[in-house]
Amino acid sequence: MSKTGLDFSVGDHVVYPAHGVGQVQGIETQEVAGYSLEVYVITFDHEKMTLRVPTAKARTAGLRSLAEGNVVTQALTTLKGRARVKRTMWSRRAQEYEAKINSGDLISIAEVVRDLHRAENQPEQSYSERQLYESALDRMAREVAAIEQIDRDAAIGILNKNLIKAVAA
């Protein structure tokens, strides 16, 4: 694959499903078992981690660009919706929430944030609910922050405003 045939360039913010927003630091060629392999070098500052994803497998691995404006709008609208909590066992719901978070899909992550959000006047969350909520909120905030070029805390402020409107409605 030629350098111009790549989906991402150095400096691009990208989303990797299991880790959220990272930045392409470089494109390297590595020798693996006698084969030459071109990889994206992606850093995730919030996890202090570097990931190498083969350029040829980037799309199938789920690597994608930051969400477009209409997807962000749809995700924020999702936050304003009514929570949809299935009447299944918590362990099953927790698995579904985890899968949505790790899908890397902004709208799916927004659904988890919406469903697990608790207003001041609502009952306390369990530890595992709070962990999943924080994980989804953080993942969504980091992507919104990268898109809007603001810091994570400002992005959380935007998300909370949308969540509060949902509760007030």
TrEMBL record:
SUPFAM superfamilies: CarD-like. Residues 7-117 form the CarD-like/TRCF RNAP-interacting domain. Coiled coil: none annotated. Transmembrane segments: none annotated. InterPro entries: CarD-like/TRCF_RID, CarD-like/TRCF_RID_sf, CarD-like_C, CarD-like_regulator, CarD_C. One of its GO terms (biological process) is rRNA transcription. It comes from the Bacteria. This is CarD family transcriptional regulator. It comes from Phenylobacterium glaciei.
